[in-house]
Please model this.
Amino acid sequence: MKKTKFLKLKVREASFISRALLSSRHPVLAHLIPMRRCNLACGYCNEYDHNSKPVDFEVIKSRLDKLADLATSIVTISGGEPMMHPELDEIIHHIRQRGMIAGLISNGYYFTPERIKRLNKAGLEYLQISIDNVEPDEVSRKSLRVLDKKLRYLSEYADFHVNINSVIGGGIKNPEDALAVARRAVELGFSTTVGVIHDGDGTLKPLSKKEKDIFQEVKKMGNKDHARLNWFQDSIAEGKPYNWRCRAGARYLYICEEGLVHWCSQQRGYPGIPLEQYTMDDFDREYKTEKWCAPTCTLQCVHQVGILDNWRDPQKTPAQMAQEQKNGKSVGEMIGAD
Ligand code: SF4
Ligand code: SF4
Model:
């Protein structure tokens, strides 16, 4: 990424963070799914199919417009494999036209020099690729050996920030592969992070002693800002619950291919309201609702968004929220009474 563009992005990020600290009444990050289909079938993943069609661009455009109207700061396109969507460039371009930061999460398989140049032109600002192992196996084919050529293309042509995430846990056989992935990422000039993989229901798989040691070593090589924001991972790696306030459904939104708002990829169905009907009442309710899955949650991006408001606005359990609404007492009054 060119230095001037990198500095501009940092300034924009800083202004979005200041805005998020000043007001808690807009989404900070939305993950938008333009298609569920994926070319791979990772053993730990519950977020893909092999036959769904891409969502029409006009439909996605209206969802992006709604996110912009809600004053969302960052939109990350995810999947499935979003690079399979035929109008991905137009989607990214529209995110930028509406003044939001444009990010992409991909498995890396479809990057060619020509495709990277098109993404540069569309205005992509962030790309994250997760690499699970060095050699492909039955759990994952997101492998360094398969993807190394793609990483070299990115290093040469990408005019956007590239982060390589390595992973520990979730049935990955050789935890030391995470070290090899992180070293290669640094060598090619990318930032690098490490995550603990969630299991099928989004909760924690305890790490072995060897996994824990490697996890700490990879973290030291990585992005310092990211490590500072991810202290929850130390508790999770130790198998201990972490006490935080998940603001999913409010500061973080997960919009599925059907256009419904969910807490996150692992808690689909809550609240399950169409984005076009989502109001600030929905936002306020979810902001104040305590999530039962929070103590063992491993979803890094939602934790990072949660940090912005962890110091303010205590939450209530869903049952308490329902009782308060039944009693006709406003949530604002109840929180104030705290
Ligand atoms: S590449 Fe990503 S979306 Fe596809 S199966 Fe693997 S983890 Fe799931
Ligand atoms: S704590 Fe939040 S982000 Fe984590 S699984 Fe639950 S709803 Fe999703």
User: Anything to note?
Assistant: The two ends are 47 Å apart (CA to CA). The chain is about 40% helix and 15% strand. Residues 67 and 113 are 31 Å apart (CA to CA). Residues 329-338 have pLDDT under 50 and may be disordered.
